[in-house]
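Before drawing any conclusions, I looked closely at one protein, both as residues and as discrete backbone shape codes, quoted below without any editing:
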Amino acid sequence: MRTLARQQDRHAVGESGYLAKSPSVFLKRVNLTRENELHNGSIEARITHIVAETRLVGPARLVIVERPASNELVAPRAAEERK
């Protein structure tokens, strides 16, 4: 796994690599790439790309987008649970 960092503050902005051992006989290779979107020194979003090269149907792609929970979304639910 290779990590990419911003030079001025050494925050990790990305990682890329592949699985050393295939988890299945149906997979040739699994590549992983993770990108971090920074805002004011904290991670605002993390995007993970997974590409699995399969033997039968070709490449399969998966994109996972993670964002921190927003207080605007959490607060109304918490207020309802308190009632």
About this structure: The mean pLDDT is 77.
